[in-house]
């Protein structure tokens, strides 16, 4: 993946940096992000549109991984940002991300989240439900502001991925329903409000998806709705946001389409269906998260204890686990890994990589082929750029790892390692509590 190679010492090198040296300097667990790989993927999306469908915007879905440096990088590459909470709005603005390139998502935005975003100039909102449409209308009564909205609809397209990360099916908590007429009612409601500028429709069918066909089906459903809105309400919608979700190659047996082929399939369908339905070509928006940052990330751990159960299995534990990568425990996610200080050595056995948390489910990788290993070896787990740090916790009192951005032999510390002091930064002692009495 990315800019990886092996040096004379048989060490894994990422972005020109010897990973073993990185662990000496920054400790483990350590998240390593390959800057060129991130930039390459941002550009791949932009280029794929530019050459065949220039009326398009690519937003990075920051839930995959957000930090100040990541926002800066995404901004430098000319992408917009899809954020899902007041916290993500805050991080983006602190990073200096242009407010007018931020879209606010979420199925339960609070009044405060909406209000703060609008006041800060973040006025592109993906409205998920009637409650939110009312909240927005109420808020705008007191503000001299206009907002642009997209309505999120449930396209009722099922995509094959883990159940927890499917979102487009009818039985979903997200979006307005097409079948019960909710989506059309929402359009009417939005059209009646002078402060709300309804630009188009948003759909997101899920994550880690490999078939462009699911997106083509979604585009078709959405454009059929555009046609209905035009015919019944006389409104021509301009924006079709098809969400994120393009899968990445976590393991060798997975073959996701490349970004260009994926974009080509989508644009072809949009062009042909828009023509068929006699609609002007809409602006297409995509919101990739994982496919921008996932393969760019590697997590380095130090091997520690080992438990051999003869004829059954050998467990080797690392100095992290589910607090820094909850995906195996949560989704049965599979990862590939190698011993970063023994890259040229042939595998001699299989070991199961266990985390250090007090639960049996804290296993990162089952039956990983490895050369002879000993404590102190460095394990590199690949494809950990997305939904790891952003989903990390302090479970079992583990401080969050540091993160470095590597490029051309330089490593920039972009997230400091948490300290034990950080772990209790919000705690108050019993005697410090303010007691509220009637
Ligand atoms: N847009 C919307 C509205 C989304 O809900 C998501 C992801 C994305 C874009 C970005 O999807 P991506 O391109 O990253 O697949 N924690 C899970 C993934 C949850 C995805 C949530 N929504 C995991 O670790 O697999």
Automatic annotation (TrEMBL):
<dbReference type="InterPro" id="IPR022657">
    <property type="entry name" value="De-COase2_CS"/>
</dbReference>
<comment type="similarity">
    <text>Belongs to the Orn/Lys/Arg decarboxylase class-II family. LysA subfamily.</text>
</comment>
<feature type="binding site">
    <location>
        <position position="327"/>
    </location>
    <ligand>
        <name>substrate</name>
    </ligand>
</feature>
<dbReference type="InterPro" id="IPR002986">
    <property type="entry name" value="DAP_deCOOHase_LysA"/>
</dbReference>
<keyword id="KW-0457">Lysine biosynthesis</keyword>
<feature type="modified residue" description="N6-(pyridoxal phosphate)lysine">
    <location>
        <position position="63"/>
    </location>
</feature>
<feature type="binding site">
    <location>
        <position position="387"/>
    </location>
    <ligand>
        <name>substrate</name>
    </ligand>
</feature>
<dbReference type="GO" id="GO:0008836">
    <property type="term" value="F:diaminopimelate decarboxylase activity"/>
</dbReference>
<dbReference type="InterPro" id="IPR009006">
    <property type="entry name" value="Ala_racemase/Decarboxylase_C"/>
</dbReference>
<comment type="subunit">
    <text>Homodimer.</text>
</comment>
<comment type="function">
    <text>Specifically catalyzes the decarboxylation of meso-diaminopimelate (meso-DAP) to L-lysine.</text>
</comment>
<dbReference type="GO" id="GO:0009089">
    <property type="term" value="P:lysine biosynthetic process via diaminopimelate"/>
</dbReference>
<protein>
    <recommendedName>
        <fullName>Diaminopimelate decarboxylase</fullName>
        <ecNumber>4.1.1.20</ecNumber>
    </recommendedName>
</protein>
<feature type="binding site">
    <location>
        <position position="245"/>
    </location>
    <ligand>
        <name>pyridoxal 5'-phosphate</name>
    </ligand>
</feature>
<keyword id="KW-0028">Amino-acid biosynthesis</keyword>
<dbReference type="Pfam" id="PF02784">
    <property type="entry name" value="Orn_Arg_deC_N"/>
</dbReference>
<keyword id="KW-0663">Pyridoxal phosphate</keyword>
<comment type="pathway">
    <text>Amino-acid biosynthesis; L-lysine biosynthesis via DAP pathway; L-lysine from DL-2,6-diaminopimelate: step 1/1.</text>
</comment>
<feature type="binding site">
    <location>
        <position position="331"/>
    </location>
    <ligand>
        <name>substrate</name>
    </ligand>
</feature>
<feature type="binding site">
    <location>
        <position position="290"/>
    </location>
    <ligand>
        <name>substrate</name>
    </ligand>
</feature>
<dbReference type="InterPro" id="IPR000183">
    <property type="entry name" value="Orn/DAP/Arg_de-COase"/>
</dbReference>
<dbReference type="InterPro" id="IPR022644">
    <property type="entry name" value="De-COase2_N"/>
</dbReference>
<feature type="binding site">
    <location>
        <position position="387"/>
    </location>
    <ligand>
        <name>pyridoxal 5'-phosphate</name>
    </ligand>
</feature>
<feature type="domain" description="Orn/DAP/Arg decarboxylase 2 N-terminal">
    <location>
        <begin position="36"/>
        <end position="293"/>
    </location>
</feature>
<keyword id="KW-0210">Decarboxylase</keyword>
<feature type="binding site">
    <location>
        <begin position="287"/>
        <end position="290"/>
    </location>
    <ligand>
        <name>pyridoxal 5'-phosphate</name>
    </ligand>
</feature>
<feature type="binding site">
    <location>
        <position position="359"/>
    </location>
    <ligand>
        <name>substrate</name>
    </ligand>
</feature>
<feature type="active site" description="Proton donor">
    <location>
        <position position="358"/>
    </location>
</feature>
<keyword id="KW-0456">Lyase</keyword>
<dbReference type="GO" id="GO:0030170">
    <property type="term" value="F:pyridoxal phosphate binding"/>
</dbReference>
<dbReference type="InterPro" id="IPR029066">
    <property type="entry name" value="PLP-binding_barrel"/>
</dbReference>
